[in-house]
Amino acid sequence: MTNSVFPDGFLWGGATAANQLEGAFKEGGKGLSVADAMPGGKARLDVLSSDTFDWTIDEDKYIYPNHRGIDHYHHFKEDIALFAKMGFKCYRFSIAWTRIFPKGDETTPNEAGLVFYEQVIDECVKHGIEPVITISHYEMPLHLAKEYGGWKNRELITFYERYAKVVLERFHSKVKYWMTFNEINSAFHFPALSQGMVKSTGAGDYHNVFQAWHNQFVASSKAVKIGHELNPELQIGCMIIYATTYSFDSNPVNQMATIEQNQEMNFFCADVQVRGEYPVYTKRIFDKYNVGELDIAEGELELLKDYPVDYIGFSYYMSSVVNITDEEAAKASGNLLAGLKNPFLKASEWGWQIDPVGLRIALNELYNRYEKPVFIVENGLGAIDNVDENFYVEDEYRIDYLREHIEAMADAIKDGVDIMGYTPWGCIDLVSASTGEMSKRYGFIYVDLDDEGNGTGKRYEKKSFNWYKDVIATNGSKL
Ligand code: BGP
User: ipTM of the assembly?
Assistant: First the structure.
């Protein structure tokens, strides 16, 4: 469209992750993943913070909604056809490591898994949809968590390299856009899903978290190397969770604390993956968290330098506030991710503070810091949707959220930021990562399933479906 600020070829689409929608968790030769060991509801948070959780799957005691997902494994053609109906230019999904290497430490891949993703990719291509693949999204093989202690063990670099090589070799001619690890920096808060470490296997000890990160950085650079050797045109990005962070007030002490929080939560991982070296503030962080010496093998720092990522993929849901001068306020904040309450913002039902201007700030911060293209690969509003008798959802609240964030993206483009695309999270309803439940929904497509797995599983277009279709058709000029 001529009057759009969004460039031609802008990648409008949607995003999902294997463990949250595929289901079929034991089919096609798939092995168990750490996500498969995560029950739904409050039990999920309990096991994550337990000292003794041993990754046992107890189906008599807990409900595991992601074992069924939305059965995308058997419905991917229908789902991708719906994405095509909305006019998606791209579709971000992840490959389940456990469909390719069921235990993670095998040497021969599982052909049935590769065939499944080949079919998914071909289905996208058939509809003119560009696949965007996350190589690992919160679902490393359970065996690697149990037997090797997760990512703190450097043997995982070899296993990941083998896995990445297999999928890159197989799919590089059809898939240009890749990401190495989903929300790599989230391990500060949630090392179970992203690093395969619960308390009993080393989470809570920051040495382990940072060692695990180092091993992941090396693994990521190895994937970039393999990908670029296969095809220099491939675009392989990092993927971080980004929460724009404000000082509560103009007290310089809070301002400095905000800078520190930004370094720790938002920038540390991206700095290494994009710039190819540990940032200057590393020592400060290592001292603060008692990290100690990392085990860094010969040649690894050079590898990081030689193979940085090509773009910055990031998720953006909310902003956060820092106030270290008011202990009461700090204590009142129960919500780890959302931080302190910002009086200028409204929040979702889960306390995630809605801040479209914060997205414009994030885009400016990231682009000015790295001067590499940025890709908003997750954004959206998790909400309880109510269906009418025809299973129609009037999700005006979701449309408002997305419209305001797209307007913020348009403003950032006018600021000079190079944005590759936009893939709102959970474009079809799926299982929530933090609650493990179906009822926190993000989709343009309603899926008739509840937290206990009851329902027909049928798909229904919500009001936002047609709205987003128009957004894409007009390249973002009709909001
Ligand atoms: C991100 C994850 C996704 C996803 C999303 C929404 O952190 O990459 O996997 O689920 O957040 O979070 P939730 O499902 O907890 O609402």
Answer: 0.98
